Amino acid sequence: MPLNSTSLTSPPAPVLMEHCCRQPWETYMEPIKMAPGVWYISGNDWVACYLIDTGDGLILIDTAMHETCYLMIENIRKLGYELTDIKKILLSHAHGDHIGAARTMKELTGAKLYLGERDHFFLTERRDLIFCDGYTCGEFEPDEFYADDKPITQGNVTIHTVSTPGHTPGCTSFFFEVTDKDGKTYKCGMHGGLGLLWNSKKAFKEIGLPSSLMYEFVDGLKKLDKFDVDITLPSHTNQVGILLLKDQVTEDFNPYYDPSIWHELMQERLERAEKILKKFEEEEDC
Ligand SMILES: [Zn+2]
Asked: Ligand 1: distance of its center to the CA of 194 in Å?
């Protein structure tokens, strides 16, 4: 039962962010093996970062906060890697809980940094939209923007990106396959940002983002629901109960292998988003 309802009952994001940034040691989470060569590595128990061993260097998905970065670095070394083994860093979207340590990790690894192009103006013109809430988020420039028709390959792993605007305009989702020692292949998938932050036309207008993001978000969920995913990688631990299952992981057993979870998650979020969309469409234009 990896799906749970913690996303509906857990404290709001700013509270969790504050806890991670002010008392990072209380949120420490050791590496969790999610799939062959894939680890939950962020070092905290709220924001996911994934480390992928490609056989020829590592890919890091998201960096979490600057304040928790030392815990992630500890985890990377605990697994026997060096920071310079990281060759590519893929950012899901330009919010502080995912990119707070991007500058730091780029400096320490020399990796190539990727971001969705439509989030670039967060870095240059609208840093208020990064929602760093006063915490550290070093300035950086991505080396490359995603193009969905140009998969990103490192070693024997190829990551297909899918633009999924909504949570942010440049929010990007990731899909890739990994193979175990017996040659069995697993499809891994991560939605880049599963929540809608604004749910009325007025709110979109006030924040200065197009309300069309609402429709793009719903379309993205419908599109991604058609994908087959064996192992769902949540971008936050409150989307899928991965922490509840971590003690079941062994060399030969992976509790995260469950092709139904992805669809359950997409359907759950779609149901919520469509309710919001219905109200949104009944609103007066503003
Ligand atoms: Zn976010």
From this structure: 8
